[in-house]
Design a protein that fits this description.
The chain is α+β, with helices and mostly antiparallel strands. It has three domains: 274 residues, Thrombin, subunit H, CATH 2.40.10; 98 residues, Pdz3 Domain; 98 residues, PDZ domain (Pdz3 Domain), CATH 2.30.42.10. Helix content is 15%, strand content 33%. The chain has eleven helices and 30 strands. Strands 24, 25, 26, 27, 28, 29 and 30 form a seven-stranded antiparallel beta sheet that branches. Strands 10-11-12-15-14-13 form a six-stranded antiparallel β-barrel. Strands 3-5-6-9-8-7 form a six-stranded antiparallel barrel. β8 and β9 form a beta hairpin.
């Protein structure tokens, strides 16, 4: 299965082995102590094309493939079929293959022990992986093996070996499995080592090897397109992805990408694709992140990260202009976890976080990554702008909860599943400068929009469609809590805040909106 968002395709639980590709310097070893030497370039043969290859390009990738491909494996996973997979017709056979043929259950799968009712169907999915040790440890993607009941590894020579899950990390979409098949006892597996000495440049060649569409060991080639791609709204906040254009497709997930010297430079993880197939935009987890994650998974079965307990969003250039903080970048605190490390240390909502332990952060992803580097119990020094002035706040790091636990409070569904009625509109006033109509929060609107009793501000009862507020998604039922850091409880205070901003020569204000009891900062342009 795959999940889509904004044209991106990332692997889902069934491990449809979503397409992916990667990067980041990695030394190649084939079960020996030293790094492998760069393979010799095979001489051109008679009848070769007369034109010269691009500068630095090998005449062939064959030597590289022969050297490293034995360390790359196909991973076949059996798991319980998800309800979605059973409901959706026409699922691609290379992604999810229900056991049995033509819709019939496989032997022993179609009924329970007493023969009366159907048992839970099974589904099969495929991905890729590669050995990182002679004793059978394999790196792959978390989404390939997340819900696996059974894992089989297929070697290049055709051997099928049983493997077990060692550990997985949702935060980076990485996992480690290990071959445990008795048939492989004492085997010395070919493997590659992570090594980050020689990071390729944008434009350098890259070759990927994996299992697209379940076809087995397949090589494709392209170039490194870019570094530091931030896909935080699609995948992980902990990975600054490498972008490559080597064709990768479903089933390549978890497979390696190599440079022209046969060094692993990343783990294939996702593609951007409006069509579902490869369009030359793939993303890989850099080798340094993959190595550090794999080591933790092997040693303890999990990854431990620092945590301060804040909900944050990007502090954009428009937000900075609204507050008169030109050129300030970072993340703004929307809310604090009650009793969490940040709340105990004195961080406050509306604080703008600009650096962690002296390292500047330009957005929420960078801040999250820097905080995650801390060990639980360590002191994290946060550089903060509060009320327009810089200061530092020391926070004692906690332990970051699992990613799925962090998302439990993000349910935006009506609890009763019903339709939200339209309340009687309280007495409202228009604020033309912001394109909003605002009113008091009365008991009826609190019940209708499920606004917690402690939330203060003004209820948005109307939004002008062609205003900046309308274009940025403000809607009836939102609560306007403050403007430029100052709480507002009546329309006069809103107009005064707008007038002060205009007097200071600013063209926008930063408003805090409470929606479904969660704060969101939105810079709004002031209408003429």
């Amino acid at each position: 299965m795959t999940a889509r968002k904004s044209g991106f395709i990332v692997g889902a639980v069934a491990g449809a082995g979503v397409a992916c590709a990667a990067l980041a310097g990695v030394g190649m070893r084939m079960g020996t102590a030293g790094a492998a030497e760069a393979p010799a370039v095979r001489a051109a043969v008679a009848g070769a094309p007369a034109f010269a290859p691009p500068p630095g390009a090998p005449l062939s990738f064959a030597d590289i493939f022969e050297k490293v491909s034995p360390a790359v494996v196909q991973i076949n996973v059996t798991s319980k079929a998800s309800p979605q997979a059973l409901r959706i017709p026409g699922l691609e056979g290379f992604d999810i293959v229900p056991r049995g043929q033509k819709g019939k259950p496989a032997p022993g799968q179609g009924q329970d022990d007493d023969g009366d009712s159907p048992a839970t169907p099974k589904q099969q999915s495929a991905g890729s992986g590669f050995f990182i040790s002679a004793d059978g440890y394999i790196v792959t993607n978390n989404h390939v093996v997340a819900d696996a009941d059974d894992i089989q590894v297929v070697m290049k020579d055709g051997r099928e070996l049983k493997a077990t899950l060692v550990g997985r990390d949702e935060g980076t979409d990485l996992a480690v499995i290990k071959v445990v098949d008795p048939k492989a006892k004492g085997a010395d597996f070919p493997y590659v080592n992570f090594e980050n000495q020689a990071k390729p440049r944008v434009g350098d060649w890259v070759i990927t090897i994996g299992n697209p569409f379940g076809l087995g060991g397949t090589a494709t080639a392209g170039i490194i397109s870019a570094y530091n791609r931030d896909l935080q709204d699609v995948t992980s906040s902990f990975v600054n992805y490498i972008q490559i254009d080597a064709p990768i497709n479903r089933g390549n997930s978890g497979g390696p990408s190599f440079d022209i010297y046969g060094r692993v430079i990343g783990v294939n993880s996702a593609i951007y694709s409006p069509s579902g197939g490869s369009v030359g935009i793939g993303f890989a987890i850099p080798a340094d992140i993959a190595e550090a994650t794999a080591k933790q998974l092997i040693s303890s079965g999990k990854v431990v990260r620092g945590y301060i307990g804040v909900t944050i969003q990007d502090f954009s250039a428009e937000s900075a202009e609204a507050l008169g903080l030109k050129d300030v970048k970072g993340a703004i605190v929307a809310e604090l976890v009650p009793g969490g490390p940040a709340a105990k240390s004195g961080l406050l909502p509306d604080d703008i976080l600009t650096a962690v332990n002296g390292t500047p952060v330009a957005n929420r992803s960078e801040l999250t990554r820097e905080v995650a580097k801390a060990r639980p119990g360590e002191t994290i020094r946060m550089t903060v702008i509060r009320d327009g002035k810089p200061r530092t706040v020391d926070v004692k790091s906690g332990t970051r909860p699992a990613e799925n636990a962090l998302g439990l409070n993000d349910d935006d569904q009506d609890q009763d599943g019903g339709t939200t009625p339209t309340p009687d509109k309280p007495a409202s006033q228009r604020v033309d400068s912001l394109g909003l109509t605002l009113g008091a929060i009365d008991p009826a609107s609190r019940q209708t929009y499920k606004i917690d009793s402690e939330i203060k501000g003004l209820l948005v009862t109307g939004v002008k469609g062609d205003s900046d507020a309308g274009e940025k998604g403000l809607a009836k039922g939102d609560v306007l809590s403050n403007i430029n850091g100052a709480p507002v409880t009546n329309v006069a205070e809103v107009n005064a805040a707008v007038a002060n901003a205009k007097k200071a020569g600013r063209t926008s204000v930063l408003v805090k909106i409470i929606r479904q009891n969660r704060p969101v900062f939105v810079p709004l342009k002031i209408a003429p």
